[in-house]
Amino acid sequence: MKLKISAILTGAFLALSAGTVLTSCEDYLDKDPDSTVDAQDAFKDFNNFQGFIEEIYNCVPNKNIHYWSCTWNLGDDEWTVPNANWHMLHQVDLGNFWAWQGGNLGQAGFWFDKAADRLDPRSIEQGSHALYGHAWYCIRKCNLGLENIDRLVGTSEERNFLMGQMYFFRAWWHFEMMQFLGGLPYLDRTIPASESPTEPRLSFQEAAEKCAADFRRAADLLPLNWDNTTVGRKTIGHNEFRLNKAMALGYLGKCLLWAGSPLMENGAHTGGALTYSYNEDYCRRAAEAFGELLTLVEQGQTLYSLVEFNYKNVYDHEKADNAATCYSDIFWSSKNQGKVPGSTESMFRGGTVAWGNGADNSYVRYNYSRTFCPNDMAEGADNIVHHPTANYVENYGMANGMPIDDPDSGYDPTHPFKNRDPRFYHDIVFDGFKYVNGSVPDQDKYIQLYTGGKHRNITNASSTGYLYQKLVPHTANVTDQADSYGQNPNADVPYMRLADIYLMYAEAAAAVGGATGKSNNFNRTAAEAVNVIRDRCGAGHVAAKYTASRERFIDEVRRERAVELSFEGLRFNDLQRWLLLTEPKYTLKTAHEFMRVENDDFFKSNDPAEARVSELKSVPLFQREYTAKHYWFPLKQSDTQMYEGFQQNPGW
Questions:
Q1: Distance, CA of 610 to CA of 146 (rounded, Å)
Q2: Region 567-594: what's the mean pLDDT?
Q3: In 3D, which of 291, 286, 288, 255 has the Cα closest to residue 168?
Q4: What is the pLDDT at residue 362?
Q5: What 3-state DSSP class applies to 127?
Q6: How far is residue 271's CA from residue 164's CA, in Å, rounded to a whole number?
Q7: 264, 574 in Cβ contact below 8 A?
Q8: CA-closest candidate to residue 317, choices 304, 340, 334
Q9: Is the pLDDT of residue 352 over 60?
Q10: How far is it, in rounded angstroms, from Cα 527 to Cα 503?
Q11: Fewer Cβ atoms within 10 Å of its own Cβ: the N or the C terminal residue of the chain?
């Protein structure tokens, strides 16, 4: 049966009000995880009330284990083999944005929606949760809880923490939907069963103001660290993923930056002329929210810090002996009892991975980790190979910090892999890279991504000349077995991490004051915030020629986002809000064709970055044909037919 927004808005908790039971998906304060809470008792004390909220944590979708083979990168960043043409990425390439809806057969690999029969919010099955549907359910839970907060018998600290979580989640679910769908009705009350919903559809900025108010309330009510509170001390060791003040400030800033971005300020336009036209008031407020957070971070008051980019062998993601933390640990964890990745940098993560008591190894091993591996090197894979486009790889500049198309960068097309940004070597698999470390013939150890090479097979490897291993090490292959069950692998693509905060701060401050722009509550300028991220990996600072112009500096901030946050599912929404999604530079997906100059023995004793190539050229793979309507996904038709004020997005 198709799940309708109307049913969720008016009926999701009618059963609760009638006295049925609610099962918490993750227990709190050492209660039996199978225990139930009677509706009349759900709000009477902190333990029960927190159990009521725990289900919301579980409902947060985990994008990377949403289905057998998943799609979360929808921008100009990825390409797939033909066998993956049923994936949402291919449908977005075709302009078929209707495909996000779970009712469309074959699109179950997209985390935004699922068919109604797989939308049970109470399920603890890994990969069972999607955003739409769960959002309205969880928003109603938040409203129901806030309306019953006065029934709580407890301390002011308990009351504040409960309210803070509900305000955060009410805003978060709205905001996540809004990034794809635009402004929505903002539900801040429960709708009785006897009342038909009539909430008006708001503009993005109107809805963002309501989100921002809730995020601000949450930031004022939640602690920086649950372990340092009376409530949290009862569950020390189990508080890492609980909502806190830092998360709320991060999303407050993001919500305001999105509201001030060119799309939200100017409406959908093609041509790119308005890409630097921000709402400065929203951006100023965003910079203040980020500044408040980053000041706390740099004072050591939060749980978060940038992890180290310090490698003994960057190609194998082997950290240096003197490194306390490791960049790769943000995304991948192994030999660690299935510990959730993220280290000290991830701030907000998907619910099932965070609350499922370790990894679901079958998802990590046979689905997620094989998504980026040539099919002949992947055990049990279903020949779904996602790989980076050449146009996206071109965002990775040089070690000196310059973009490769700058005449002063030192980029040499006969040595295209030499002296690149250090993150290039961590993230990107390029020709001659030693892909297999174990016992196989030499010709099978080194990846062949040159034109005509073994791994340029468009049906089961790379069409573009590149693969990537940012999120999963290349050693998760059939020989090296880095993702074997015995390694206890776990993986996660975070919704928000600290590096993103620095770059959003830089963008918000630059929109107002260029490279020297800054907030009143943080001591770094926009340029200095970008350079913090570059210093971490050893890349050069933003050059003076780019800081002298507001527009050129914003371009560098955007390129920095493309590199630092590559393949983390953010690119589509960035291009969208910058009014660049429809522009030819970002609708054309390309491959690099080139010939190897070195013989095979070169790669046995030399760094592949030193290899020469010849006849390097960029060739088109696909040109997206977008119009202004593609700046937003279409709403479900059944939802827009509920009442007059819930109108469809333009053009759909």
A1: 61
A2: 98
A3: 255
A4: 64
A5: coil
A6: 42
A7: no
A8: 334
A9: no
A10: 10
A11: N
Whole-number Å distance between alpha carbons of 180 and 593: 34
Query: Cα–Cα distances in Å, from 92 out to 100, 507, 576, 609, 624?
Result: 9, 27, 13, 34, 8
In terms of Cβ atoms closer than 10 Å to its own Cβ (0-12, 13-18, 19+), residue 406 is middle
Provide the mean pLDDT of the chain. Answer: 89
The amino acid that residue 637 corresponds to is Q
Phi, psi torsion values for 589, nearest 5 degrees = -105, 135
Bridge-partner residues for 496, per DSSP?
348
- Which pLDDT does position 475 carry in this prediction? 94
Give the pLDDT confidence of 372-415 residue by residue, as tens digits.
989 888 876 678 899 999 999 999 999 999 999 999 999 999 99
The tokens for 351 are: 């619910």
pLDDT of residue 497: 98
* Distance separating alpha carbons of residues 257 and 214, to the nearest angstrom: 16
Q: CA dist 55 to 134, 161, 464, 587, Å?
A: 11, 16, 42, 39
Owner of token pair 């100023």: 284
Question: What is the DSSP annotation of 528-545?
Answer: HHHHHHHHHHTPPPPPHH
Contacts of 489 (CB under 8 A, 6+ apart): 332, 333, 334, 338, 359, 361, 364, 365, 369, 476, 482, 483
DSSP 199-240: PPPPPHHHHHHHHHHHHHHHHHHS-S-GGGSTTGGGGTTS-T
